[in-house]
Amino acid sequence: MDNKIFIRRQLNILKCIHENPTLDIKELSTILQISKQTVKTDLMQMQNVMAKFDVRIDVLSNNTIRVWGNENINYMLKAFQSNIQFSVEKQFLLLMLLTPGFITSQEISERLFVSKSLIEKIMPAIIKKYPQEIKSVRRHGVQLIASQLEIRNHFTELISPYISGLDLDDEIKAFHINHFPIMDYINNDDIEAAYNAVQLVHDLESFSLTDESVGLLFLQLMYANYLRRTRTVDFGEDLTLVLKDNRQKGSYQAAAAGLCRISGLTVHDEIQYFTYMLLMLRKQSISDKTTYLSEMQDLVRDVLNGIKTELAIDLFADSELLNGLSAHLFTTVVRKDKLATSFGEQNGRELRKQYPIGVEMAVVAAKIIGERFKYKPSDEEIMYIDENKNDNNNNNNNKSGNKSKIINFDDIPIK
């Protein structure tokens, strides 16, 4: 595999091994729901590329594995993230997001350079998967009918795995060359406007975004400009609902107005939308710790009490976890259920198998958060809580160069 293209399954194998290098072939097979032979074959095919990153994984005679250079696997995963294969289904969905009005199966096949028979084969399954978002009309084709919040979330969900946030302009051009001709739709002005706008956030002392969050903001700004050029944009009442009663929105509206001004998105709805985006993506600096500890202390206490009562696990003594959980809830609790998490079904199954105790804790936390904020968290949001409960501490490439420790519930011994 000298072309340096890993498929998602192979990246998942490496991720599992990196997180738990004591797993054997059978355990990997069970977690990823693939055959033992597939695990062995993938590991063998990746050997040459792994060697370039000083990583070596041997399969021993008893189906155990031996890992050298495990500390380098995470760096390798980041390096190959942009090379994940972009499936025909994802290309189909992205084309829908970039096409106003109806589009026929013939037009889809011509734009994606695949056979019409393949499109007609996969289309029913896609429509069934997204019944509230894609409409099919005989002799007209298919049309996207999702809300503005939904289509913008889907756009970033599809492309964000290929955008690290480090070199935005080059990364979007690489995506165009390797995966989908996105620059046939998004133009250089859209890219430049979005790039200039995210620089504003870098210059604001009150914001500290991870590279991933910068990438998401860049994609949102770029796509918003494209939508404004190609169709009528109507948010309906969605923005009113997501910002209602949010006491902190005022401090973010000025920043959102600056972003929109630089991007040419001067419509009031866009300022409101990017106010919400900043609330969702915010990563407060460590100097703001007192604020989020104070505002989240009651909710965190209720969550930890719930875990202690239902699971007999006492986490109150771990101050680092308390800080991390407080920061995570402070930065994500405003999400509610208005923007779906970009969490796939496969990832959810893997988390349930790898971290069953963590998932149980996340279920308890989601129940308490739902009761406090009067809504029912979806299964995807529960998985999001489990995987990302302390993500706001994880800015591995912050301005100071320091690396923050990630706290995982499953690393904590049960007393």
Structure description:
With 415 residues, the chain is mostly helical. It contains 20 helices and 4 strands. It has a two-stranded antiparallel ribbon with strand order 1-2. The protein is globular. The chain starts with 7 loop residues before the first helix and ends in a 27-residue tail after the last helix.
In round numbers, the mean pLDDT is 78
Number-wise, the strands total 4
Give the DSSP E fraction (strand runs of 2 or more residues). under 5%
Class from helix and strand fractions:
mainly alpha
Radius of gyration: 22 Å
Strand order of the largest sheet: 1-2
Number of helical elements: 20
As a percent range, the share of helical residues equals 55-70%
Secondary-structure element string: HHHHEEHHHHEEHHHHHHHHHHHH
The largest β sheet comes out as: 2 strands, antiparallel
Shape: globular
> Could you give the distance between the termini?
46 Å
> Which consecutive residue ranges, at least 5 long each, have pLDDT under 50?
283-288, 334-344, 388-415
